[in-house]
Design a protein that fits this description.
single chain, mainly alpha, Vanadium-containing Chloroperoxidase, domain 1, 11 helices, about 70% helix, elongated
Length: about 230
């Protein structure tokens, strides 16, 4: 277990490098961040979102369980445990969002252009927020506006980043001790790219990513603790 916790800590530090670097720059999001790479980044974002999470989970589950020296029963128990961990992460994320109520970067920017704070926007109902975004869309691509309208809640922590960092930290815990470095690098790069895409698309800032990573680290640590207490014959 000590090896797994050490791997978890190293993985957390790697993932936290992105929000730390963003925080050090002190830059605030503007539409100029949207570039030719944005549609590609949107695809990566969706791989950690509502529509792509299931496919991504199946893919990474297959990678992590490949050549795993445990029984099929153990693999099934592991899959159930991971599903519960991911669901719990999203539930906790939602509770925190309602408590913190941090505005999304694109809402801050759009509100500033109108000479307003973000409070009036977040007092609106969901349908009214969607209409407000359509009215004040600064000539951005239709797919980005649709993405903004789909997620009109608050920012902290990032749900996409909770999902992505959870898979990355699971990979560190399971693959680092087995020296499967190529697969570990693949999942880590995907997670960092997914987290970075949330910033480029104006959905999140550095604290949202850092909070998601810390939450995921706690969830994975709990999962490791739970797994270690299962019967050895599994």
């Amino acid at each position: 277990m000590h090896t797994q916790i050490r791997a978890l800590l190293w993985g957390s530090l790697v993932l936290l490098m992105l929000p730390l670097a963003l925080w050090c720059t002190g830059l605030a999001w503007t539409p100029t961040w949207i570039s030719g790479a944005a549609p590609w980044l949107y695809g990566v974002t969706e791989s950690a979102g509502t529509y792509g999470a299931a496919v991504t989970s199946m893919l990474w589950s297959a990678v992590l369980l490949w050549r795993w020296p445990r029984s099929r029963r153990a693999a099934l128990v592991w899959l159930v445990g991971v599903a519960l961990m991911l669901a719990l992460g999203q539930a906790v994320k939602t509770v925190i969002k309602h408590q913190v109520e941090a505005p999304r970067p694109h809402v801050q920017w759009l509100s500033a252009q109108q000479g307003l704070g973000t409070d009036p926007y977040y007092r609106l109902q969901r349908s009214e927020r969607q209409h407000w975004l359509a009215q004040h869309n600064p000539a951005l691509p239709a797919w980005l506006l649709a993405h903004w309208q789909h997620e009109t809640d608050t920012a902290f922590p990032s749900g996409h980043s909770v999902f992505a960092s959870s898979w990355a930290l699971l990979a560190w815990v399971m693959l680092w001790p087995r020296r499967r470095y190529a697969a570990l690098a693949l999942i880590t790069v995907w997670a960092v790219t997914a987290m970075g895409s949330r910033v480029v698309l104006g959905m999140h800032s550095a604290p949202d990513l850092a909070g998601a990573t810390v939450l995921s680290a706690l969830l994975v640590a709990a999962a490791v603790w739970w797994w270690q207490r299962l019967p050895a014959r599994w």
